Amino acid sequence: MTDLSAFSLEGSTIVVTGANTGIGQGIAVAAVRAGARVIGIGRSPMGETAGVIGPTFVPHTLDLADGDARRGLVDTLWREHGPLDGLVNNAGIIRRADAVDHSEADWDAVLDTNLKAMFVLSQGFARAVLAEGRRGKIVNIASLLSLQGGIRVPAYAASKHGVAGLTQALSNEWAARGLNVNAIAPGYIESNNTSALRADPDRSSAILSRIPAGRWGKPSDIGDAAVFLLARASDYMHGALIPVDGGWLAR
Predict the structure, then answer these.
(1) Domain range for residue 205?
(2) What CATH number has the domain bearing residue 76?
(3) Reported confidence tier of residue 2, pLDDT bands at 50, 70, 90
């Protein structure tokens, strides 16, 4: 028989960045459904997510672009909410422009939010978990563009390739110490980041025609995969990059 408790997050506290909308909200909802208390990090109000989840969702407003604030985030949450069991690095931004027109400011903003902030939070989480001899789970939200180049998103593609490499690098150091680091590569998901694509009839049709599942993904599709990587069922997984893409990469 399947041990369903291996897929439970009962009694755990999970931090999810970018929890106000889209994929982050889907992950927060799925984690709470699996039994977790979720601390949501967002730069804008998270009333919608809180309304969907209820009292087991704890909103914490913070802009991850603020270097000083993000450096002390894990210590603050650990002190205020007790030991943390999991961290989902989901927050990210995208800037679209032809490579010849892509500004240095946009490049820096994307790399800072999508990659540097992820490292800083993972480092802080690992320090706290390892200092207390606890187990912990880190789930990084990568992208299909961790494996492909995309169109008109050079900084985003570079940052997400970096996420894949960082996931492996951290897992190599921390796997033997009880800390799992894995990543999910979402396909084309109905979220704020894909609103421009879905609004373009030609691009939307071209994308949909390549997805074997025949539909855009939903945030809940990523949420369920994240629960697996946060739960005991994935204890022997380290450094994995799991596509959840409706079959896009198999096409």
Answers:
(1) 4-243
(2) 3.40.50.720
(3) low
> Is residue 251 one of the residues assigned to a domain?
no
Tokens of 28: 């927060």
Query: Any catalytic annotation for residue 188?
Result: no
> For the whole model, what pTM was predicted?
0.96
CA distances from 217 to 26, 185, 189, 226 (A): 11, 12, 4, 14
Rounded CA-CA distance 125/93 in Å is: 22
What beta strand segments (E) does 136-178 contain?
A: 136-141
Confidence at residue 3, expressed as pLDDT on a 0 to 100 scale: 65
Residues 6+ apart with CB under 8 A from 210: 248, 251
- The answer to whether residue 250 sits within a structural domain is no
Spatial distance between the Cα atoms of 55 and 10, rounded to a whole number of angstroms: 15
| C-beta separation of 193 from 94 below 8 A | yes
240 sits in the region (left: phi over 0; alpha: psi -120 to 50; else beta) called: beta
CB atoms within 10 A of CB 102: 17
The answer to whether residue 169 is domain-embedded is yes
- Cβ neighbors of 173 (< 8 A, separation 6 or more) are none
Q: How many residues would you count in the chain?
A: 251
Q: What is the pLDDT of residues 187-221, one digit of tens each?
A: 999 988 788 889 999 999 999 999 999 999 999 99
Return the pLDDT at 192: 80
How far apart CA 148 and CA 36 sit, in angstroms, is 33
Of 156, 174, 216, 228, the active-site residue reads 156
Residue 133 burial (CB < 10 Å; 0-12/13-18/19+)? exposed
Number of domains making up the chain: 1
